[in-house]
Amino acid sequence: MLNIALPKGRLGEKVYAMFAAAGFDCPAILEENRRLVFENEALGLRYFWVKPSDVAVYVERGAADAGVAGKDILLEHAPDVYELLDLKTGICRMAVAGPADFRDDSRRRLRVATKFDRIAGEYYASLGRDIDVIHLNGSIELAPLLGLSDVIVDIVETGATLRENGLAVLAEILPISARFITNKASYEFCREQIEALRRGLEKQTEERA
User: Fold this and answer.
1) Contacts of 42 (CB under 8 A, 6+ apart)
2) Do 95 and 154 contact (CB within 8 A), yes or no?
3) Residue 126, Cβ neighbours under 10 Å: how many?
């Protein structure tokens, strides 16, 4: 069995649809149940749902041979995996956001609230800007509203949440999308199967373009 880690939620459902359309379906995954592991013995595939931020951990450590993770997770945690394909879905952007009238005062350290410490740090380092990173796990938008931070670094999809809270995108850092990744050892020993998956998914990305 080739083990494939899929991210729970809307992105995972979109990605599984791509696998299925490429001929790598698993009917049991569509049934109404609370199971986390699903097998298609005929195809030699085993899918399982995990928290999106954990997919790369399962793949890097070999519990999964392959999986789908957001580029944000790959950049933030730098797992030792192969990134084989941009699936061109789950598209959003990593951005700096804050009050629309915010003006950076370079005479003091910029307070940045984020759950992406590495990405924020590297971005501002590239600008030569000294920052104070404030790590948060949720409701990042609240930080500048309550004076905890000057700005935030977070994923932005439509920007609706920012606008509803009186915030705006101040700078775009990089585009984000879902990526097909594989464990390095698995790629050596199961290359034929993994490459078949990659080719099938690549065809799906081309058809949806």
Assistant:
1) none
2) yes
3) 9
**Rounded to an integer, what distance in angstroms lies between the CA atom of residue 83 and that of residue 81?**
6
- Phi, psi (5° rounding) for residue 56? -65, -30
**Cβ pair 84, 201 in contact under 8 A:** no
CA 16 to chain centre: 15
- The answer to whether residues 168 and 100 touch, using CB atoms and an 8 Å cutoff, is yes
Q: How many residues does the structure list for the chain?
A: 209
Tell me which amino acid residue 85 is: L
Token code pair at residue 200: 């099938």
Q: What is the pLDDT of residues 55-112, one digit of tens each?
A: 999 999 999 999 999 999 999 999 999 999 999 999 999 999 999 999 999 899 999 9
Both structure tokens of 2: 């080739």
